[in-house]
Write a structure and sequence with these properties.
Elements (H helix, E strand, L loop, with lengths): L4 E6 L3 E7 L17 E5 L2 H11 L4 E7 L3 H12 L3 E6 L5 E7 L5 E5 L12 H9 L1 E6 L9 H7 L2 E5 L11 H6 L2 E5 L6 H11 L4 E5 L5 E5 L2 E5 L14 H14 L4 H15 L12 H16 L1
Parallel strand pairs: 1-4, 1-8, 2-6, 4-5, 8-9, 9-10, 10-11
Antiparallel strand pairs: 2-3, 6-7, 11-12, 12-13
Length: 306
Amino acid sequence: MSCDIDVLVLGGAGVDTIVYVPELPLPYADSYMIDSGIRTRAGQTGDFVALALAALGLRTHHLDFLGDDPEGERVRALHRDHGIALTAIPQPAGTKRAVNLVGPDGRRLSLYDTSRAHPDDRFPEDTLRGLATASRHAHVSITHPCAPALPVLRAAGVSISTDLHNWDGANPYHEPFAYGADLVFLSAAALPDPETTMRRIAGHGRAEVVVATAGAEGAFLLSDGELTHIPAVTPPAPVVDSNGAGDAFAAAFLHGHLSGEPPRRCARLGAVAGAYACTVPSTETAALSHEALLTAAAAAEAEAAR
């Protein structure tokens, strides 16, 4: 069957307010003067994955809830400006939003407003099924109400990926995503033993490939029962912000995966894209094109061979 969509991105649409702070953790004080300004822009995890996938030339469609509010209009404008198809389900509680505190080394602390959803929210099943049936792949954010959508995606026969972000390996909220996806990304930051968690994901769920990103230490790839370390790539410019690096990694990996590349090559592409994302301030939205990704990957491989 012919598919009109390469990747259906589910969830993760919203706005972030970015505050560059002098250090993290931020010591208590009555007030801080923020000389760089406090800025709000569209773009949370689903938005950034969709943006990166589209920049790489993949036909991308984003489905999520949005409010009829200025924040929702920012998200709609981001998709219009980048030619990304968006199906927005009305959300009376308003558009998802967060505050990101970013330190001088690019690390961040995110404060999420969880009031912008209701426990009984569900994607309209006909809409979800129709988009899934037209898609080669679905990338599922861990925002609500994406977990209840997983059975519909599986019934449609679409392959599924997800990003567990900084899962600690214990929080039960993440388990439907961890065990319900064919390809699982997560951060190693909160894992005392990344390999144990990665093997548990593969052993208890559907995942054929599990990738744990580890920042400057690179990433770990579990495929066919073999754990492989993927070295980090030197960023092409000074690191200013780690926000969006994981989303860029996932998008570049998926680009390789859907092109038929082996997992190790996909992970190297992800490392290149993640390194580039660390050089882009949170207040901006930028992603590598297909040609730029391949050029940067070739340069990284040449550097590693020296």
